[in-house]
Write a structure and sequence with these properties.
The complex is a heterodimer of chains A (455) and B (340).
Chain A: E1 4-14, E2 19-28, E3 31-37, E4 49-53, E5 57-61, E6 63-68, H1 81-90, E7 93-98, H2 109-120, E8 125-128, H3 144-150, E9 155-156, H4 165-174, E10 182-184, H5 201-206, H6 213-230, E11 234-236, H7 242-253, E12 258-262, H8 264-268, H9 312-323, E13 329-330, H10 339-342, H11 359-368, H12 374-380, H13 383-389, E14 407-417, E15 436-446, E16 449-453
Parallel strand pairs in A: 1-4, 1-5, 6-7, 7-8, 9-10, 10-11, 11-12, 12-13
Antiparallel strand pairs in A: 1-2, 2-3, 5-14, 14-15, 15-16
Chain B: H1 10-18, H2 34-53, E1 65-70, H3 76-87, E2 91-96, H4 108-117, E3 122-127, H5 132-139, E4 144-150, H6 156-167, E5 177-181, H7 188-199, E6 203-207, E7 233-234, H8 238-241, E8 247-250, H9 255-259, H10 266-273, H11 277-280, E9 288-290, H12 303-306, H13 313-331, H14 335-339
Parallel strand pairs in B: 1-2, 1-3, 3-4, 5-6, 5-8, 6-7, 8-9
Helix pairs in contact in B: 2-6, 2-13, 3-13, 6-7, 6-13
Classes of the chains: A alpha/beta (455), B alpha/beta (340).
């Protein structure tokens, strides 16, 4: 391994320091040594320095995924911590936060320590999230202090909403001793007739039981008010509707202690994708024509995700909320599944999209279409997540000199076709297969070591 | 596909170029043009003679294997397909979920592969999950799929039989007022019929409890020509909706709607949405009364109406056999043999 790496002549963007200039960056001994603007007088490079030509590339702090499903322990046929970490590195993430819907569930310190131990053997940083309730069953809260000491960065019963409002209240109140966030999946099960598809034209056309926007918004409203009266730190996972955005915007005006995230697919893909694309049609961000015939490409179970892909109007509202800072972070909600979990009827298929390896490509493609700026993409994947993680992780968000060299380099103009067979994740489940994206991760560097290189 | 691509005669070519409909699979009627409907009806008319006049047997489908796979109980549809296949000398194998490996935990995907390996030519499938026949079509390379009803999505052969029945009573459906009454939101029969009616130029109207109307299909932003449902109008009040109707189709009220608490009572439902003699009197003089069966007499339809001279319910049943015979012939490319 080279002790020094010189990232030569790229566009350096670091939203935490409001930096956006052409220049170079020197890494030494795992730390960021110096940032050198293009016209500055060059200093001699250290011996044994690896030079990477970053012409046409963007150099930014390593990305943090606040919401990842790694499936280990318990569902290793879908993903392991190792394959998830490899997929993350390929997707430009140097830190990922693993969700607790595994078996056994990380509701106690030993399981968490085991995840951390396995995570430490991978090349990226894995920060586990514990459940809020024992075995995510929604009956009693976990040993939050013990889990915090073991190294979790938050608590979540993700996948299922916390049904009992009294438990949410206790959890938000009790968790203040840890200063860690309670992360909630907002979807009132009583209002959901079927997971994974929005209630709307498409669900009605296809005769599928569905999950209405109101199921999310009811829970968002409840959780916000509960955060208000408890003073707990609330993080709202994968926000997907216009109504939720309105509630969050209002809550932030009222200075309630909440943060929120949205996924690339909830910003850019609509429920129309479930209608499927024609065999020879080129996939793009405008989505398929919903009024065409129902075909065998319809009922695309790779578009089945929870919360569901919503209407185009919702997409726009959530995107706007990211652009104006109402929503703090972009998270992948990477949810890998095996082929057989998806090769069945819509109602029997598992929910989730394998997102780590397409997130950045999808977002940079959107930036080419003027939907989002590069700076917003980067801040939503660096400063945004750190706001949720807390000040302890502050150094992860920036390219400040003498901080850890976690760096992502994007080849911003590179066009490529999504081919799930080339995914490092075990989950090949993506609706984007065959789509051309613009912008690809070129290098991922963690602790000054190249952990992924696009060859 | 294997047996279909051989011997492309004149008829097949014309037919295929005009409309890639019934081939390769029959999944819904949204692929049908008006000509496709007419072609199917003309073959069904000849088929009707086979089983009404006799000798109830033709050898057109000799050597063809048809499997029926039903994940949901059904007597009428299954028997109708079986009768249709047998009258045409096909070999018909009946599989049901009860006696298949599904009970042993076999996945849907594996079941499809098993059928594939058994050289089934045509698979008639009914499933309680919407879209299951599409999934079957996706995974089966050599077997053609016929949707015999999937979840709340589609029931194309029922819609074809219903349109065929109407075609025997009226020259054209153009501008005919066709009223569908009941739980349209959860009805596959209604969805396929609405698609067929729109294609054939009728003016469909939906009536029923407001919470069981699929409003999403008719939202303002969807009022465009390309929306296949754009000619449908909604009038929850049956007494208004039925005025001058040329056809009234009543839907079966699934008892679980009531048991889940979505409707206050069967009594109130009957008060508001039962098709009665009084209500039918407001429709056009020769109104045709339809029901896909089985009927809940006294709930969605009164006994007087069910057995009145306006009722074509029994015709729907016998026509469905003729239609299914026609579909089997068209899908195996034997339609031409009948027409010549």
């Amino acid at each position: 391994m080279n002790k020094s790496i010189f990232l030569n002549n790229g566009r350096i963007i670091d939203p935490s320091q409001k930096i956006d200039f052409e220049g170079s960056l020197l890494i030494s001994n795992g730390k960021i040594q110096s940032l050198i603007p293009k016209n500055a007088v060059p200093k001699p490079l250290p011996n044994d320095c690896l030079m990477i030509d970053c012409e046409g590339m963007v150099i930014c702090p390593g990305f943090i995924d606040i919401h990842t499903h790694l499936r280990e322990p318990g569902f290793e046929h879908k993903e392991t911590i190792l394959t998830g970490a490899q997929a993350a590195a390929k997707g430009g993430f140097t830190t990922i936060c693993s969700m607790p819907n595994t078996n056994p569930c990380p509701d106690n310190a030993p399981v968490v320590r085991d995840i951390i131990r396995i995570g430490d053997r991978t090349k990226i940083r894995i920060l586990p999230i514990a459940s809020i309730t024992t075995n995510r069953a929604g009956n009693s809260i976990v040993e939050m202090s013990d889990l915090a000491q073991a190294g979790v960065i938050g608590f979540s019963d993700d996948g299922d909403a916390l049904k009992r409002p009294d438990l949410l209240r206790e959890a938000l109140s009790y968790s203040t001793i840890t200063e860690l966030p309670i992360i909630t999946h907002c979807e009132d099960p009583e209002l959901v007739t079927g997971k994974g598809i929005n209630e709307g034209w498409v669900s009605s056309r296809l005769g599928l039981p569905s999950s209405p926007s109101i199921a999310e918004e009811m829970m968002v409203a409840r959780d916000i008010e509960m955060a208000r009266i408890t003073g707990g730190k609330l993080h709202l996972a994968h926000i997907s509707t216009e109504g939720s955005v309105r509630l969050i915007r209002d809550a932030k005006k009222r200075k309630i202690n909440i943060t929120a995230e949205a996924t690339p697919h909830h910003i850019l893909l609509s429920e129309d994708w479930i209608m499927g694309w024609g065999d020879n049609e080129k996939k793009d961000l405008t989505g398929p024509n919903i009024f065409s015939q129902v075909t065998k490409n319809t009922y695309d179970t790779n578009s089945k995700v929870s919360p569901p892909l919503r209407s185009k109007q919702d997409n726009k509202a959530v995107l706007k909320a990211i652009n104006d800072g109402t929503i703090d972070a972009i998270a992948t909600d990477h949810a890998p599944h095996s082929y057989f979990d998806k090769a069945t009827t819509w109602e029997d298929a598992s929910v989730g999209i394998s997102g780590l390896e397409t997130a950045i490509g999808l977002l940079t493609t959107a930036s080419k279409n003027q939907l989002i700026t590069l700076e917003t993409i980067i801040s939503s994947l660096t400063t945004g997540p750190v706001k949720i993680l807390g000040p302890k992780w502050k150094e992860l968000e920036s390219l400040k000199e003498d901080t850890v060299a976690d760096i992502t380099i994007i080849n911003i103009n590179k066009k490529w076709l999504v081919d799930s067979n080339t995914f490092l994740s075990k989950g090949k489940n993506t609706p984007l297969n065959g789509m051309e994206l613009e912008g690809k991760i070129a290098y991922t560097i963690r602790n000054g070591e190249i952990v992924y290189e696009d060859k | 596909m294997h047996f279909m691509q051989k011997n492309l005669h004149h008829f097949d070519k014309v037919y295929r170029e005009d409309s890639p409909v019934i081939t390769p699979h029959l999944l819904d009627v949204d692929t049908f043009s008006q000509q496709d409907f007419e072609l199917t009806f003309s073959i069904a008319n000849r088929m009707k003679k086979i089983y009404t006049v006799g000798p109830k047997k033709s050898s057109l489908l000799k050597g063809i294997t048809i499997a029926t796979l039903f994940y949901e109980p059904s007597t009428r549809t299954r028997i109708s397909f079986e009768a249709a296949g047998k009258m045409l000398s096909a070999d018909v194998i009946n599989l049901s979920v009860d006696n298949s490996s599904t009970r042993k935990g076999e996945s849907f995907y594996d079941t499809m592969l098993t059928l594939q390996s058994n050289n089934i030519d045509l698979l008639v499938i009914r499933h309680n999950h919407s879209g299951a026949p599409y999934m079957a079509a996706k995974h089966l390379e050599k077997t053609l799929v016929i949707n015999a009803g999937d979840g709340s999505h589609a029931h194309p052969t029922q819609a074809l039989a219903d349109m065929f029945t109407l075609a025997q009573h009226m020259k054209s459906l153009k501008d005919k007022k066709v009223l569908i009454v009941g739980d349209v939101a959860h009805s596959r029969v209604a969805r396929s019929n609405l698609l067929a009616l729109c294609t054939l130029g009728a003016k469909p109207i939906i009536s029923g409890p407001p919470n069981l109307i699929p409003w999403d299909l008719f939202g303002k932003q969807y009022r465009v020509d390309s929306n296949p449902f754009n000619k449908v109008s909604i009038m929850p009040d049956l007494d208004q909706a039925i005025i001058d109707a040329d056809v009234v189709m009543t839907l079966r009220l699934q008892s679980e709607r009531h048991s889940k608490g979505l409707l206050p009572s069967l009594r109130e439902y009957a008060n508001l949405w039962q098709v009665t003699t009084d209500r039918l009197a407001k429709a056009s003089t020769n109104v045709l009364l339809m029901h896909p069966g089985p009927m809940n007499i006294g709930v969605e339809i009164s006994p007087e109406v069910a057995y009145s001279t306006n009722s074509v319910v029994q015709e729907q049943v016998s026509n469905s056999i003729a239609i299914r015979m026609a579909i089997l012939l068209l899908m195996t490319n034997k339609g031409r043999d009948v027409n010549e």
